[in-house]
Amino acid sequence: MASTLSLKTVPTKPFPDALAGTSGLRKKVPVFMQENYVENWLEALFFTQPPPAGKESILVTGGDGRFYSEVVIQKVMKMALAHGYKRIIVGKDGILSTPSVSAIIRERKADGGVILTASHNPGGPTQDFGMKYNISSGAPAPEGVMHAQYEHSQKLTSYTIADVPDFDISKVQTIIPFSGVTIEIIDPCDIYINLMKQIFNFDLIKSLFQRKHFKFTFDALHGVTGPYALRLFHEEFGCPVECLMNCNPLPDFGGLHPDPNQVYAHTLVERMYADSSNCPDFGAACDGDGDRNMILGNHCFVNPADSLAIIAESASECIPFFAREGVKGVARSSPTAPCVDRVAAAKSIPCYETPTGWKFFGNLMDAGKISICGEESFGTGSIHIREKDGLWAVLCWLSIIAHESNKRYPLSGSSSSSAAPSSADSSAEGKVVSVQEIMDEYWTKHGKYFIQRHDYEGVDSTKAHSLYDTLRDTLAGKSEEELKKITGDDNAKSCDVFNYTDPVDGSYSPNNGIRFKFVDGSRFVVRLSGTSSSGATIRVYYEKYSDDKAQFHKKEAEVLEPLVATFSRVSKIREITGFEKPTVIT
Ligand code: VG1
Ligand code: CO
Q1: Which of 258, 288, 517, 556, CA to CA, is 20 to 30 A from 479?
Q2: pTM higher than the cut 0.90
Q3: What is the CATH number of domain 193-410+423-446?
Q4: Average pLDDT, stretch 433-460?
Q5: If 0-12 CB within 10 Å is exposed, 13-18 middle and 19+ buried, where does residue 7 land?
Q6: Separation of alpha carbons 128 and 251, rounded Å
Q7: Euclidean distance between CA atoms 261 and 287, whole angstroms
Q8: Strand, coil or helix: what is 507?
Q9: Cβ atoms within 10 A of the Cβ of 279, count?
């Protein structure tokens, strides 16, 4: 052990493109590989967010293990030391899911965390890399923090780094390189799994896996959730490993696009729609860094907006954490269809609408205003941490199915069998309530939103901005009569731009998408993505409500067709971008 830390100061220059978007900084790997690019971003971060004095300052770091992580993680550790951090907690092999970083920050009372991930974007030498900063609550840094960091980065002429050899992070161990400084390499899963045990009834979930008829499958898409999924589903619940797909994290995700939607997680989707008696009852996938989830049933898909609403509806009945704490309020991002709003109204609890990105939920959670929240982009979460949490959402669904199955098809000897409905007999034992039944019952109670998101990826950035600006100037704030004329649609009603004032700290975030409403309450919302690593992505979100049961099994594309036609006509998206159709529809 050396006695003092020796530092190196290296000249650098600003990188004008290094501004964090919806969720951290995301660029192609070669951009991050430029000399001093990573160091610049970290220097500005640790300068504007210095470790607090008067305590053992702690930084957590890790990521989804994507290509280039092993180089960057060493820079994070060395620069954090150079800027005065006293303890660095790092996941073994640099592996930590985004939700587990948030959990570790909170559990260990750390001062911040640096997460190395570009989330659901592909990885590899020519693909995407990313860096995110989370604050001491475990939440993604608010916009103000990242703006200050960016401004400082534009003035840099040098950075400071510890002049030490690389640390060995390949085994769980504690390294004390200098007196007063600790590098703690931890098991990536322990803290997170323990937290899940405090939230959920593991015995209840395990009983579901023991039912004769329950078949489960999970796809980690070679992202970070693999090791967590093995611990939970295999070790805790006894699910055979053959049912868990792609559970070894790979730097290029095995060439997969680690985005859990029906387009990219198609192997799972094919399994869930297989024409055989072997088709699983429940399937799920998570994204590269583990904060997103997709839920599927036998021949059915759960839309994320429905999933959020169903979890909010059932949480206090099925999940011990919410039975104890209650559900105080809920929130959803603005382009997310307002399914959860109806649940909130029925429960007489508040519901908030925020801009896209998890950072806006943090203040509402800290202030005790909400307990559960989510986004249409396959993100669901709660106050247990300050990030969305893919596996948590899967455990919510397993709890709901287990609870409902116990109610309707009690297992003999279970305490709930005294409340057995008359249909329960021993032949029903082992049966499970299906995902489709849960959705049908929920739609019958609250009605159904038909929902689609159309993404136009890789659009020329100038054209995308001009389309957005022109559309906003043409439509926002116009009267119903004017809108009917401009759009040629007799159902046009109103249009505005979503400007958000945080109800907790009053911070203001303008221009978060164009919201267009039709007379019957249908909407489309248009915004530009803040996570694309090159070019621009235009996202158009469509939704239409129906409480007519006879309509529920209609196809989304058919129901939403008139909305799509109006958007296409008024935005001139084909003419402006040259795109005949969206690149991805989810
Ligand atoms: C997208 C999603 C947004 C999500 C964000 C980060 O942002 O729309 O809902 O919070 O990705 O998710 P954008 O600006 O591209 O639409 V993740 O899984 O990257 O942390
Ligand atoms: Co993610």
Answers
A1: 556
A2: yes
A3: 3.40.120.10
A4: 96
A5: middle
A6: 11
A7: 9
A8: coil
A9: 16
Q: Say how many Å lie between the CA of residue 264 and the centre of ligand 2.
A: 14
Query: Which atom of ligand 1 is found nearest the CA of 375?
Result: 9
Query: Which atom of ligand 1 lies nearest, measured to the CA of 333?
Result: 9
The atom of ligand 1 lying closest to the CA of 98 is 20
Residue matched to tokens 């059915």: 300
Angle made by CA atoms 308, 311, 313, in degrees to the nearest 5: 105
Q: Which ligand is nearest to the CA of 584?
A: 1
pLDDT cut 90: percent of the chain above it: 89
Q: Alpha-carbon dihedral of residues 479, 482, 485, 488, nearest 10 degrees?
A: -30
Look at residues 541, 564, 559 and name the one whose alpha carbon lies nearest to residue 334.
541
**540 phi and psi, to 5 degrees?**
-120, 125
**pLDDT number for residue 425:** 46
Enumerate residues lining ligand 1, CB below 6 A.
22-23, 119-120, 287, 291-292, 333, 356-358, 375, 377, 379, 529-531, 539
- Whether residue 345 contacts residue 351, with contact meaning beta carbons closer than 8 Å, is answered with yes
- What are the backbone dihedrals phi and psi of residue 251, each rounded to the nearest 5 degrees, phi first? -60, -25
Looking at the domain covering 7-188, what would its CATH class be?
A: alpha beta
Residues in Cβ contact with 99 at an 8 Å cutoff, skipping those fewer than 6 apart: 192, 290, 291, 381, 385, 387, 388, 389, 390, 391, 392
* Residue range 85-118, pLDDT digits in tens: 999 999 999 999 999 999 999 999 999 999 999 9
Q: Which of 100, 356, 385, 461 to mutate to test the pocket of ligand 1 (most atoms within 8 A of CB)?
A: 356
Residues facing residue 401 across a β-bridge: none
Q: How far is the CA of 252 from the centre of ligand 1 (A)?
A: 20
Q: Which two tokens stand for residue 252?
A: 């290029």
C-alpha 481/C-alpha 186 separation (Å) is 62
CA distance 186 to 165: 20
- Indicate the pLDDT class of residue 486, thresholds 50, 70 and 90: very high
Nearest C-alpha neighbor of 346 from the set 335, 333, 330, 361:
330
Q: What's the mean pLDDT when you consider all of the chain?
A: 94
Distance 252 CA to ligand 2 centre (A): 15
Protein residue whose Cα sits closest to atom 13 of ligand 1: 529
Long-range pairs of 553-561 with CB within 8 A, sequence gap ≥ 24: 554/450, 556/450, 556/451, 556/452, 557/452, 559/450, 560/450, 560/452
pLDDT at 162: 96
* Residues linked to residue 546 through DSSP beta bridges, in sequence order: 448
How big is the chain by its Cα radius of gyration, in Å?
24
- Same-fold call for 193-410+423-446 versus 448-585: no
Q: Which CATH superfamily is domain 448-585 in?
A: Alpha-D-phosphohexomutase, C-terminal domain (3.30.310.50)
Q: CB-side exposure of 500: number of CA atoms within 13 Å?
A: 22
For tokens 């009053």, the residue is: 506
The half-sphere exposure of 426 on its side-chain side, counting CA atoms within 13 A, is 2
Nearest protein Cα to ligand 1, atom 16: 529
- The residues carrying an active-site annotation are 119
Q: What is the 3-state secondary structure (H, E, C) of 81-100?
A: HHCCCCEEEEEEEEECCHHH
Q: Domain boundaries in the chain?
A: 7-188, 193-410+423-446, 448-585
